[in-house]
Amino acid sequence: TLVAFIGCASSSGHPPVKSAPTVGLAASSNSIAAGQAVTLTWQSTNATSVTLTATGSDGSTRSISTNSQLNGSTQDKPAVTTTYSATASGPGGNSSPQQVQVAVAAQPKLPTLVFSANSNSIVKGDTVTLSCQLTDATSISITAVGADGVTRQISTAANPATDQPAENTTYTAVATGPGGSAPPQTVSVAVVLGAP
């Protein structure tokens, strides 16, 4: 008697493992001045999309466009120190977020100036005192223009400065600092003849 055994082969095979995506993120600089732009560059593997987000030191969160590029670069102009985060997504899931921080130096403030004279009218031969109240300034210049059109520079080694004009004179002060120059301020002093 011939007995035949016919069996079905079974397989315990598993579907292929899908590789997890990876992403790398870099910034062109870790520190910039306010108003400047930073270039962000990313590269991914096993990904179908990459997302970029920006979180500012003020708590604000923004999405940065990647233009659907899996490998690419873009520019951003942060107003405050910002942490950028990149995440790649694909059939194998999501990558670990990659982060870079870009520090933004505060924009220097524009100087302020309050310019005044102790009198708007003096007797010829008297001295006028010129006072400057400054903030965020590193230097101050005072120019005097007489009624005859002659221009003189007034020493600002001391504050207040002094001058002895011989005729009606207009004084112009300009304060300068890291943030630029304050708008010029002027005062006019009339010079009158004393009693004979």
- Flag low-confidence runs: 1-11
Mean pLDDT: 91
Task: Return the structural class.
Answer: mainly beta
Distance between the termini: 157 Å
- Number of helical stretches of at least 4 residues: 0
Strand/helix succession: EEEEEEEEEEEEEEEEEE
Shape: rod-shaped
Largest sheet: 6 strands, mixed
Describe the model.
The structure is a single chain. The chain has 196 residues and is mainly beta. It contains no helices and 18 strands. Strands 2, 4, 5, 7, 8 and 9 form a six-stranded mixed beta sheet that branches. Strands 11, 13, 14, 16, 17 and 18 form a six-stranded mixed beta sheet that branches. A three-stranded antiparallel beta sheet has the order 1-3-6, with no helix packed on it. A hairpin with a 2-residue loop joins β16 (169-177) and β17. It is rod-shaped, with a radius of gyration of 36 Å. The N and C termini lie far apart (157 Å).
Summary of the model, kept short:
The chain is mainly beta. It is 0% helix and 53% strand.
Which secondary structure elements does this structure contain, and how are they paired or packed?
Blueprint: E1 22-27, E2 31-33, E3 38-45, E4 49-56, E5 61-64, E6 72-76, E7 82-90, E8 93-94, E9 98-105, E10 112-117, E11 121-123, E12 128-135, E13 139-146, E14 151-154, E15 161-163, E16 169-177, E17 180-181, E18 185-192
Parallel strand pairs: 2-9, 11-18
Antiparallel strand pairs: 1-3, 3-6, 4-5, 4-7, 7-8, 7-9, 10-12, 12-15, 13-14, 13-16, 16-17, 16-18
